[in-house]
Amino acid sequence: MGFYLFSIKIFNDKQGSWLQREFLLPLKLINRILRSFTP
């Protein structure tokens, strides 16, 4: 959840459009990794 809020904060920044594209995939990968570690 923290990563998601962080991405939204960056998206609201001036360079949000560019940074959001950079974070969109890593966020999904992080979500998948966290789910794999969570029982």
Please describe what this structure looks like.
Helix 1 packs antiparallel against helix 2 (16-37). The chain has two helices and no strands. The radius of gyration is 11 Å and the shape is elongated. The chain has one domain (2-37). With 39 residues, it is an all-alpha fold. The model has no long low-confidence stretch (mean pLDDT 64).
Topology, please?
Elements: H1 2-11, H2 16-37
Helix pairs in contact: 1-2
Features of this protein?
39 residues; mainly alpha; elongated
What coarse outline follows from CA principal-axis ratios? Answer: elongated
Would you report the number of β strands? 0
In terms of DSSP E residues, the strand content is: under 5%
Continuous helix count: 2
Task: Report a brief summary of the structure.
It is built from two helices and no strands. It is an all-alpha fold and 39 residues long.
